[in-house]
Amino acid sequence: MSKNIVIAIDGYSSCGKSTIAKALAKKLHFIYIDTGAMYRAVTLYFLRNKIDLNDPLAVESALDNIHINFEYRDEKTFVFLNEEDISEEIRQMPVSEKVSQVSAIKAVRTAMVRQQQRMGKSKNIIMDGRDIGTVVFPDATLKFFMTADPQIRAERRFKELITKGEKVSLEEIYANLALRDHQDTTREESPLIQAADAIVLDNSNIDQEMQLEFALSYIRPLLSSKNTE
Q1: What string of DSSP letters covers 148-186?
Q2: Which residues pair with 144 in a beta bridge?
Q3: How far is it, in rounded angstroms, from Cα 32 to Cα 20?
Q4: pLDDT interval class at 1 (50, 70, 90)
Q5: Eight-class DSSP state of 122
Q6: Residues in a beta bridge with 80
Q7: Residues paired with 8 in a beta bridge
Q8: I need a labelling partner for 159 at 20 to 30 A (CA). Which of 88, 167, 186, 223 fits?
Q9: How big is the chain by its Cα radius of gyration, in Å?
Q10: Handedness of CA 106, 150, 70, 135 (dihedral sign)
């Protein structure tokens, strides 16, 4: 077994995967890698450059020009696309409406998975996404699968966007999440499925503090065993 610890967090959209991943990373002093942001960055690049998703050559060519980096400042994660801070733009609806379609493209997933696996080779990391525990790190030290009631997820996402000043309706958000769930779970390339050895975390009726403690209850024994090796 490798000396570094890899914690994989998979699950549906707007389940708070990144929230708990960031909290765990801060608590444990692990590196947090937001894979969802990587696919959103690719989507933004495709939208800006009007890349035809049905043109394999155009997609491959575009991927060669996409360089994604993360910076951690003041306990926040900033996402950079070709040295431009796109942390806020990738969370807006135009990207949300296309990201599942873009992330279903084999060439896109291959390029991103290669980067993700490289990041997890030598450091203690927490990585969240759709296929971390099944494709990117099938041998992850620990896997969580997050879920929540669709209506609750839509309400959370709606409040988040309204707070940021976006003009969206709850119905629009609910429809978008339903579409993304369908696309994520039925796509041919790396669909969203629960790994057989993943621990289910349904946060429909629990707060962030309770989620964190739930996850830590499984992680602490791992840290103890590593320290005694």
Answers
A1: --HHHHHHHHHHHHHHTT----HHHHHHHHHHHHHHHHH
A2: 9, 199
A3: 10
A4: very low
A5: S
A6: 69, 85
A7: 127, 143
A8: 186
A9: 17
A10: negative
Measured between alpha carbons, how far is 2 from 6 in angstroms, rounded to an integer? 10
Locus of tokens 């629990």 = 206
Q: What share of the chain is helix, strand, coil (3-state, %, to 5)?
A: 50, 15, 30
204 and 152 Cβ atoms separated by less than 8 Å: yes
Nearest to 136 by CA among 46, 63, 31, 36: 36
- Which position has the higher pLDDT, 200 or 160? 200
Report which DSSP code applies to 91: G
pLDDT at residue 4 tops 90: no
Q: Which residues of 213-228 are buried (b: 16+ CB within 10 A; e: fewer)?
A: eebeeebeeeeeeeee
Residue in the structure block whose two tokens are 């733009």: 89
Tell whether the model's pLDDT for residue 58 goes beyond 80: yes
Give the H/E segment covering residue 145.
strand 142-147
Q: What is the band of 73 on the pLDDT scale with cuts at 50, 70, 90?
A: confident
User: What gap in Å lies between CA 194 and CA 162, rounded to an integer?
Assistant: 31
Give the containing element (helix H, strand E) for 99.
helix 99-103
Report which of 27, 55, 1, 12 is spatially closest to residue 185, judged by C-alpha positions: 12
Residues facing residue 31 across a β-bridge: 125
Burial-class residue 83 by CB neighbours within 10 Å (0-12, 13-18, 19+): exposed
